[in-house]
Amino acid sequence: MVMTEARFIEKQALPSWLASMRKHRRVLVPQRREGLTLFRPLDPGQDLDLDGLSSEPPKAALLPRDEALFAFRYRRNGDKPPRWGVELIETPPNEPTLVFGSRPCDACGFATTDRVYNAGTRRDTAYCARRDQTVVATLACSRPGPTCFCHRVGGGPDNEAGSDILVTEVAKGYLLEAVSSRGLDFMRESGLKDGAGLTAEAATVRRAARAAMPDGPSLLAAPEHVRAVFEDTAFWERTAAACLSCGACSYLCPTCYCFNITDEARGNEGLRLRSWDNCMSPQFTLEASGHNPRPGKAHRLRNRVSHKFAFYPSLHEGALACAGCGRCIVFCPASLDIREIVSQAMIQTANAEGEPRHD
Amino acid sequence: MPSRLEELKDGIRKALPDLDMVLAWGQGPDSLRRKPLFIVSQADIDKIVWDPCCSPNLAGYLTGLRGKKVGIVVKGCDCRSVVELIQEKLVDRAEVTIFGLHCEGTIDPAKVRATLPGDARGAFGDCRVSDGRIRFASDTSLQNLAASDAFYDKCLHCSDPNAGFCDYFIGERGTPPPVSTAPPDALERLEAMGLEERFRFWEQAMDRCVRCYACRNACPLCVCKDHCLAQSRDPHWVDQTDHPREKLMFQVIHALHTAGRCVECGECERACPMGLPVMALKRALNRQINELFDYRAGLDPEAIPPLFTFREEEDRIGEKKWS
C-alpha cells in the first residue's frame, strides 16, 4: 500500500543527492558501461541511465556473484601426536545500501528471493543481513520495452512488490512514495522536500504506463499446463533443440537464485565461497556417483521453465518465479523465448483436455 | 528468376526426404533477430528466413546430431566451421548436406540500436544491403546505415563471404561487404596499447563478465563444453571467485584451446550478453598460427590442423637450420 507521505527531487538535483547518500551507504544505480547499463556503485564520472531496462538486474545487491560464508585456517594444535585444528572466521555482511533505479520487475525478483531466503524459520543469514540493510527505491516504468511482459505474470510497470520506495518520474523530477516502513524511515532522513502535491500527477503517469502495456494473454494460469507437459519429452526436445546450455538466461534473471558452495584454499587458508550457479549447466545436478538426473538440455530446460511456472508457484500460493522482464529473451544466443514456451504448453494441454496420452 | 530464398527452399524441399532434418534460420523474438530453425517436415520450410539478420552459426549443432543425416545452411564463415569440424573428425562428412550461400554481412542488433537511439524500441522492417549501405524501415523512418554502423565487427574484415565447400551453392557468388571506413576493432585497439593498459582493459572487461559460458557454448568447436577444464575441481585451474583473474584465465584457456582451429565466425562475441570482445584473443593467436604454419582454419577438409600433427621440420620455423 503506497503511503501518503511523499518526497520530491528535481531532475537536475538527483545526481548530487545520490552522491550525498554515499556518506552513509553504498549507492547502487544503473550506469552506462561500454554500451550496457549495469548496477554499479555510484560514480559521478559515469552516466546514470534511468531510461529503459538495465542490462542486468540489481540482484547482486542481495545475492552477490560470490561471497565468503566464512574464512578458514588450519592450525597445528600439538606435536605429540601431531594435531591440526581449523579456525573458522565469519564476517557477516555489514554494508547499508541504497538501490536506486531498479524496476518493478527487478523488485519482483527480490520478492521472489525473499520467499525462499527469508521465510519464517528458514532465514539465510547473509541474505537477510543484506536485505535488512538495503533500501530498494524502484523507478516505475513509463513505457514497455520490446520484450517486457511483467503484466502477464502478476506484475506491472508500477508494481510495488519487493520495493521499499516507489519512484515515479513526473514533469519536473521524481516523486518518491514509501511502500514499506523501511522506505518511510529512509525518506524521512533523506533531506528531500515534501512531494504531497504531486501524488495525483504521479498516479496519472502510472495509469498511462499500465495502459501502454502490449496485449498478451495472462500466464498466471500456466502452472497446471506446464505441469501437464512434464512427461512430454518430444515437447521438451523440440523446445530445447536450439538451447546452448549456457547461463546467460539464469545469470541475468532477477528471480534466479541458485548457488554453488566451494572451498577455495591456498595452502592452509581459504574461503568457503558461495557463488552463482545455474541449472542449465550440465554439472548442476551431477552427483558424486557420476549419475546425472538431468543429463540433456531438454531435461534442464524443462526444469528451469517448470521451476518458474509450476514448482515454485505450487510452494508459494501461485506466485510465479518469473518477473516478465524479458532479459532471458533479449540475451539468449539461440533466441529461446520463455513466453512462447509457456504459451505452447498452455495451448497444447488446453487442446488435449480429455485426450488420453499416446506414449 | 526465383529469389535466393525461393531457390534455397526448393533445394531443401528436394533434399529433405533423404535427411533427418535441415538447419536453417527462422524468425526470432524481435525484428532484428533470427533463430536456429530445425526443419523436420515440409511445412517447416515455409518458416525459413534469409536476410542480413541471419547471424547465428548453425554449425555448432552438428556435433550434437552425430548419427543423423543433417542438412545445414551456411554462410562463408559458418561453412569454414563445418569444414574445420570435418577436418577434426568431429563431424562425419557423409552425414552432412551443405547448402552454401553468399553473405552480404550480418547485422549486430546492439550496434543498430546504439546508432539509432530514437528508434531503440522500434520494430524494423525488411533489411536490404545495396551499394554497401544497409537499408531498412523502422517504425518511424527509413534507415540507411554504413556497414560499420550496422554489421558485426567480424564482417568488416571478412575474407570468405561465400560458402567455400558445399553440396549445393544457392544463388550467385559475391564479394565481401564493402567497407569505406571502419573504426579500429578491438584487436587493433589492443595492439595500440602498452602492456599495462592492455591489462587494465581486460580487468575492466572481465569485471562485466558473468561467467555464463555463452561464449564457450556457442563456439562450434567446443565439443567438450560439458567436461570443460575451466569448470573442473581436479585439476583446479580456475576457481569460483568472481574476480577478473579467474575470468581472464578462462578466456586464455579458451583461446589456447581454439588456436588455429577458430575460424573467427564471431559466435563467441555474438553470444556474450555483456558484449565483451573475446574474439580478439583468438584472432591474435590465429595470426601467430598463420605466421608460423601458413595455415588458416576451415578451408580444406583434407588438411590437418598444424597443432594436431607433428613435423620434424616446419617450413617456416626451419628447426634443422638453427645452429
As a whole number of angstroms, the C-alpha radius of gyration of chain B is 20 Å
Order of helices and strands of chain B: HEEHEHEHEEEHEHHHHHH
pLDDT averaged residue by residue of chain A: 93
Low-confidence stretches of chain A: 352-359
Give the spatial strand order of the biggest sheet of chain B. 2-1-3-4-8
* Percent strand of chain B: 5-15%
Major sheet of chain A: 8 strands, mixed
In N-to-C order, the SSE pattern of chain A is: EHEEEEEHEEHEEEHEHHHHEEHHH
Strand content of chain A: 15-25%
How much helix is in the residues of chain B?
A: 25-40%
> Total strand count of chain B, please?
8
Derived from helix and strand composition plus strand pairing, the structural class of chain B reads: alpha/beta
List keywords for this structure.
heterodimer, A: 359 residues, alpha+beta, 11 helices, B: 323 residues, alpha/beta, five-stranded mixed β-sheet, three-stranded antiparallel β-sheet, 8 strands
Short description:
The complex is a heterodimer of chains A (359) and B (323). Chain A has helices spanning 14-21, 104-117, 125-132, 181-188, 199-211, 222-228, 233-239, 248-251, 297-315, 327-331, 338-351, and strands at residues 6-10, 26-33, 36-41, 66-79, 82-89, 97-102, 118-119, 122-123, 134-139, 165-170, 173-178, 193-194, 259-266, 269-276.
Structural account:
- The complex is a heterodimer of chains A (359) and B (323).
- Helices cover 30% and strands 24% of the residues of chain A.
- Chain A has helices at residues 14-21, 104-117, 125-132, 181-188, 199-211, 222-228, 233-239, 248-251, 297-315, 327-331, 338-351, and strands at residues 6-10, 26-33, 36-41, 66-79, 82-89, 97-102, 118-119, 122-123, 134-139, 165-170, 173-178, 193-194, 259-266, 269-276.
- An eight-stranded mixed beta sheet of chain A has the order 3-2-6-9-10-11-1-12. A four-stranded antiparallel beta sheet of chain A has the order 5-4-14-13, with no helix packed on it. Chain A has a two-stranded antiparallel ribbon with strand order 7-8.
- With 323 residues, chain B is of the alpha/beta class.
- Chain B has a domain at 184-318.
- Helix content of chain B is 30%, strand content 13%.
- Chain B has helices spanning 4-15, 42-45, 76-87, 109-115, 147-150, 186-191, 195-208, 214-218, 244-257, 267-271, 279-293; strands at residues 21-27, 34-39, 70-74, 96-100, 124-130, 133-138, 142-146, 168-169.
- Chain B has a five-stranded mixed beta sheet. A three-stranded antiparallel beta sheet of chain B has the order 5-6-7.
- Chain B is globular and about 65 Å long.
